[in-house]
């Protein structure tokens, strides 16, 4: 089964990476530890945090929790890939802002909503039905895909 995650307030950029990698990832800012533990428990999510004390408290309550020490997101992604056998699939990317699954839309639907140069150059667009975010695979996309795919394959293999 594909793991689902709950990230605490210190891991906002990691949350975006995981979502772009197609992983169901909730992110909570300024949320008390007890509420985080409760949500992970109810929603069957693995808690990721930089707070070792929170990891220990969560485990005592029966929540699977992983301590993220790496400051660099790529390293944290690699850690998750190695510990959980997680693979990243950017073709199933979720909304980096809110984690909702994005939907492919007809190009005409985003006319006037994206920069003109983008509209002229790009044919495929996705929209988040929850927050309205519009996404396309620009030049940064290839770099994201490369980063995720190298993180998903341990360096020593
Ligand atoms: Zn969204």
Structural class: alpha/beta
Tertiary shape: elongated
By CATH reckoning, the class of the largest domain would read Alpha Beta
The CATH architecture of the largest domain: 3-Layer(aba) Sandwich
What does this 3D model show about the protein?
- With 157 residues, this protein is α/β, with parallel strands linked by helices.
- The chain has two domains: 5-89, Rossmann fold (3-Layer(aba) Sandwich); 92-138, no CATH class.
- Helix content is 38%, strand content 13%.
- The chain has helices at 12-20, 33-43, 52-60, 73-84, 116-121, 139-151, and strands at 5-7, 25-27, 46-49, 65-67, 103-105, 125-127, 134-135.
- The strands form two sheets. A four-stranded parallel sheet has the order 2-1-3-4, with helices on both faces.
- Helix 4 packs across helix 6.
- The two termini are 23 Å apart.
- The protein binds zinc ion.
The gist of it:
This protein is an alpha/beta fold and 157 residues long. The protein has helices spanning 12-20, 33-43, 52-60, 73-84, 116-121, 139-151, and strands spanning 5-7, 25-27, 46-49, 65-67, 103-105, 125-127, 134-135. The protein is 38% helix and 13% strand.
């Amino acid at each position: 089964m594909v793991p689902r995650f709950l990230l605490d307030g210190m891991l906002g950029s990691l949350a975006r990476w995981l979502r772009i990698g197609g992983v169901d990832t909730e992110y909570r800012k300024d949320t008390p530890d007890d509420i985080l533990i409760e949500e992970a428990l109810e929603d069957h999510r693995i808690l990721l945090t930089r707070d070792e004390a929170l990891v220990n408290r969560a485990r005592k309550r029966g929540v699977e929790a992983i301590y993220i020490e790496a400051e660099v997101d790529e390293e944290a992604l690699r850690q998750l890939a190695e510990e959980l056998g997680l693979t990243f699939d950017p073709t199933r990317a979720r909304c980096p802002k809110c984690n909702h699954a994005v939907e492919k839309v007809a190009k005409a639907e985003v006319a006037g909503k994206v920069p003109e140069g983008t509209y002229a150059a790009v044919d495929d667009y996705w929209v988040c039905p929850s927050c309205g975010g519009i996404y396309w695979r620009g030049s940064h996309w290839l770099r994201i895909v490369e980063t995720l795919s190298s993180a998903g394959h341990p360096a020593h293999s």
